[in-house]
Amino acid sequence: MVTSTGFSRIVLRKATGSALPHPAGWIWAARRRRWWSQARERSDRLWELVDAEWMECLRREPVESLLKLPSGCVQEHWPATLREFVLTARSLVIPREQKAPQSLVSDIHVAPVGTVLAQGMNSKKKHEIENLAAVVHAIAKRCGAKTVVDVGSGQGYLAQALSFEYQLRVVAIDASSHHASVTIARAERIKKHYAAKCVEKQLLMVPRAVTCHVLSSDTLAAVTLDACKDDNGEHVRDTKTSTKKITQIQESTQGTPPLILAGLHACGDLSVNMLRVFVSCEQVKALVSIGCCYNLLSEDTYEDTDTCPGFPMSKAAKHSELVLGKSIRDLACQSAERWRNLTMDIALQNFDVHAFRAAFQMVLEKYFPEVSRLSPSIGRQGKALRRQRLRKVVESQMTTKKNDDFSCSTLKEQNKNTNDVHPVIHEVDTGPDDIHQNAHQKFILFKDFTLSGLGRLGCGSVEDTSLLEIWKDVQPFSVGFIGTPFLLCYLVIV
């Protein structure tokens, strides 16, 4: 999102009372269907909410076809209603093609981040920082702004690139005091490097760090304008939540120079609060934001909060009575392109994790209903599980390679005095016992997943026999099939 006064504008027009035209109206009506509306409220046995004919068809499809489903790929032998749904939903998806910064902002030059600034960055982060910093700098020149407020600054990568490479005054706001300390320490090391390069005495810009938990747009406005007005100190700690409204804040900060709000991976409501401050504060001339974690948006129907909810924002969305719910927001974070590019092994692991989560939800519903009603989060259990499995695979391959190397060296010694050639067997026949072992191993993984999740939630344990009963209910759908309802939902909301 790149927005500035007089630079770019998005107009939302409220729909009239008449029915929406095809195809948008077709999808809008689809959300009122049984499987869609119930999927918003419940996440156990989700596969039962999808049309029976569709599921019977899809459960016979190979994994490759399922992975292409969110990308709009259909097969001729599928039911006509399923093909229509997939193609119509895909036609409404916003394009995700990557564009060069020059196509967004003219007269832009992307300066490469040097080795000193790039310390601690992986290749993805380095790419993001280089391009976003260049965009912010170009827009700052257009707006005549010399100050940038980096909201949700983390360890200060963007703030430091803007300060040292583009000589902009930067205020880095983050909720973590640890991040603020890291930002300051890192900036001091970088400052020494740049100071040594300066031929003439030059005033180097160093980011200011502000520790503040932004709970509302009023808080963000107060911290932003106060920090830009106050030049004393490099770090402001424990900034108190403001009780003033944005209009009152602006009156007390008259004369504040124009500034830009910027955010890389501004999480959840943080992006919403940045938008509200941009609209309401005259001093904020532009907003450059890359949002993330849309599943963490607050919603007035579900969250009990004293501040304005993150969704919906517009009057049009409010009047439409559109309600998402946590499950649908979680699904919206998935990417069709990411599924399409998965390998077979990784795809099957992802389907397994979906099966574990579905079964774990059933465990909560049956044994800990009061916890389930709170829509708890257990963190990235699936990612941790995949790392654990990958580590075991790598260790197994390394052990096999060592054994093969040992066998080969032994064979060479044996073959010194013989002309016989001993073939090396690379394939092992897989019989029914191996398949049974695979099913048993999946239950063990599900058990580990469940015990870890229950531990994070502070719940008691569940007997193995009870877990096995639930797993037997889910297991028939676990091989490449449990993810189908989720993949269908991606079509509508991605």
From TrEMBL:
It comes from the Eukaryota. Residues 124-299 form the Methyltransferase domain. InterPro entries: Methyltranfer_dom (IPR025714), METTL25 (IPR052220), SAM-dependent_MTases_sf (IPR029063). This is Protein RRNAD1.
